Amino acid sequence: MGQNSRIMPTYREVTSALRRVNSQLSAAECHGLIAGALNTQNTASIMRFFTDDPESLQQDPEFSVLISQLVQVSSEGYRDEGFNFQFLLPDDAIPLLERSRALAEWCGGYVMGLLESGLKEFDKLPQDAAEVAKDLVEISQLDTSIDVSGSDNDLMQLEEYVRVGIQIIYRALINECGWEAGK
User: Fold this and answer.
1) Contact assessment for residue 100 and residue 156, using Cβ atoms and an 8 Å cutoff
2) How much is the pLDDT for 106?
């Protein structure tokens, strides 16, 4: 795919592309779905979640390019020893409540990606990875419809927990099953 494959598409670009293919997913949920599926190398099984209209996927080559970029950047993020996995989330200028909702959606997509790509029981993971997976389920169910007190710093800490947590799950799956994203 070349050098451009390493550039994370913007939240706005992915949101626009998802609308063009009549997807019900948010950009954050879409990226979470990809990131979860990459843990088991089974991204093909998730394509059906992007839209109810498969023809629209074939008619929008830009959508395929964006998805390929997300897969590539995410694969590289998992392999990065510095834990620099990038999330596709709204930028910091967006209100805290919307960014919190997007992180919850990202976690929901991630869990769905894990489940749909073959990981059926979190309890079969090593204990630390199983705990993280269960925490991600909890985060995905946060009620972001009510304005709770919180700060940008709280959200950053939660994002960092998720970033480290998905690395724990990824490493557990590599060690347990020999899977490796993008290989």
Assistant:
1) no
2) 98
Structure tokens at 73: 């950047």
Q: Per the domain annotation, does 183 fall within a domain?
A: no
Separation between Cα atoms, residue 17 and residue 179, nearest integer Å: 30
In the predicted model, what is the mean pLDDT of residues 21-25? 90
* pTM, 2 dp: 0.87
Taking the C-alpha atoms of residue 149 and residue 127, their distance in angstroms, rounded to an integer, is 31
Q: Domain range holding 132?
A: 3-177
| Alpha carbon of residue 173 to chain centroid | 16
In a 10 Å sphere around its CB, with 0-12 CB exposed, 13-18 middle and 19+ buried, how is residue 169 labelled? buried
The pLDDT of 123-145, averaged and rounded, is 90
Number of domains the chain is built from: 1
pLDDT of residue 43: 65
Sign of the torsion formed by the C-alpha atoms of 63, 64, 69 and 72? positive
Mean pLDDT in residue range 79-99: 89
- Sign (positive or negative) of CA dihedral 162, 167, 168, 172: positive
Q: Mean pLDDT across the stretch 18-42?
A: 90
Question: For residue 160, what are its two tokens?
Answer: 């960092």
Query: What's the CATH number where 125 sits?
Result: 1.20.120.740
Q: How many whole angstroms separate alpha carbon 86 and alpha carbon 103?
A: 12
Residue 111: count other Cβ atoms within 10 Å of its Cβ: 22
